Amino acid sequence: MDSESDEEQAQASARRHHEFWTLVFTSGTMSYSEWAAMDLAEYCEAREAWIIYQEERKQQAGRS
Fold this sequence. Notes:
By secondary structure, this protein is mainly α. The chain has a domain at 32-64. It has helices at residues 4-16, 18-27, 32-36, 40-63. The longest helix has 24 residues, at 40-63.
């Protein structure tokens, strides 16, 4: 990524599409070829969404 604003944009996009990414990650159906076919912006959004998803799971586990 070229700048901080690119990372911020990816984070914002991941949050906007939160329900979609949660569905993708909980179904476990994303393959390597799907990750590899993404352009840089899509990949950065997916990576940020994965980070958010993992943080949420840790918080939920802490409440259990």
